[in-house]
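Quick one - inputs below.
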Amino acid sequence: MAAQKYITGTCSISNNQVFLNGEKIFAGATKPMDELLLSIYQHFQFSYPKFHKMDNLSKLGWLAAELLLKDFDKSNYHAEQVGTVLANANASLDMDLKYYDSIKDVPSPSLFVYTLPNIVAGEICIRHNFKGENAFFVQPNFDIGFIEQQVSFLLDNNLLQACICGWIDVLGQDYKAMLFLVEKVKKENAEEFSAKSMEMIFNK
Amino acid sequence: MIVKSPGVIPEVYIVADNILSPIGKTTAENLQSLKQNISGIKHYTDLDITPDPIAAALFEPDFLTIDKNYTKFENLLISSILNSINQLPKSYLSNKTALIVSSTKGNISLLETEEHTEDLNKRIALHTSAQLVANHFGFVNQPIVVSNACISGVLAILTGMRLIQSGCYENVIVTGADVISKFVLSGFQSFQALSKSVCRPFDKDRTGLNLGEGAATVILSSRKQNESDVKVSSGAISNDANHISGPSRTGEELGFAIKKALLNAGITAHDVGYISTHGTATNYNDEMEANAINYAGLQHVPANSLKGYYGHTLGAAGLIESVIATHAIKNGVIFSSFGYSENGVSKPINICTKLTEQPTKHALKTASGFGGCNAAMIFSK
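Output:
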């Protein structure tokens, strides 16, 4: 039942730096979270007006996915064959605090909708037209063994053929995104998908 | 501990369950209320959490037994789990047991009562509550938290089923709860999604949803405990990839999840005896769901929405409604869809208007939520 699975791409955003497949592709000065996210967006000359309406969690995840999927050929898959398995520690608390502050005036539906952690998965799915399985887990630290097990189950049972998995967490000025693209097709420099290989990349 | 035996995929059964809601503290009490057409939704004009009159299903202050060491949210989880565990022999749960907690907003109401500090951020975190609950019962494995909008409860059961199927655990306790706070209420008010009266899922006069408080638990196991234990056959999740707060126009994505769940259960649309819908009574949800049910060829199957009894209990909804679905199989009873009288969706759908007795072998549970997520699960005799 177990299929061969490979990590065919990785993207991390943390400490004002962006790494794509292990290579540093952006280094910025320390600045507030909002400005940092915008500077990454501008640096790569993205053009996606909806980005500006998103909360910081969705922006962070959207940027990491955008870079991760730069060379991803969607035409190899049906929309239903690609999905996401994501996790973080603070759910949507970053936005929850902002929304709660705002309700002293008039509560805004456009803020409230981001007070759920899985909205970032929705944004990634909308952008890339992924219609497969989604799951969002909240855990104190990235539980690599658990995420590996979840993703393997989906791919081994042919519930998905490609999966974006990883960690996207934001609270105030603290943040980290680390996404993995897992596929069954071996590509150049692709590592075998395992908890061990994920751990090495995550902690690098 | 690994309990994997190669090549054998274990069956997954629900060996104990609980619903803790304003209309009952046990599953049996809830079934009794539904049988008598008792809704938990009441009109309120003097709540601290809103200046407006609302209709909601809320716990009365003295209804719950509260342990002061825990928040209301955690107390709901603990009470619901305790009632479920008490249905099993003492030594039934081993260290091969996992705990899965489903919630959308957990302890968010602490923002309304406590001073905001860094410690409060940690106290609000869903994994903090899950760990406290695990510690309370002495569960040794790190708890799993599912927070995936309104499909959380169904996704939590599906996650538990898969963990047992993959041999990671023998038993999984799946629990969920949500509490109605100023935070949650103001958000749904801002969406103008709330009905001023008791909601009317799929009806032509529906005007929106009611919020509700509740908790529920199912204990999944690879070992059948009673002859009547219902099997968790299969499930599937999909995403609309369309809009973060509005459902798909076609319903094809939920329809696809339903078809996939049927396929994985090895059954066809004709084998389904009952559909427990999400049925929130908002215009868009019910329309989308009717489309999906037609897409999957299930428009003739008796269906209901339980939102007229419970309101929308968010992270608990999928669990509460799944427990009722399993009892449709056990007892051969489908409850009347509270609030429904005339079809208000553009596709045909067979909504139950009275208590219906019929043997049911397979039941379908559906759910959809913000972020475009959809879930479908099949329970079987």
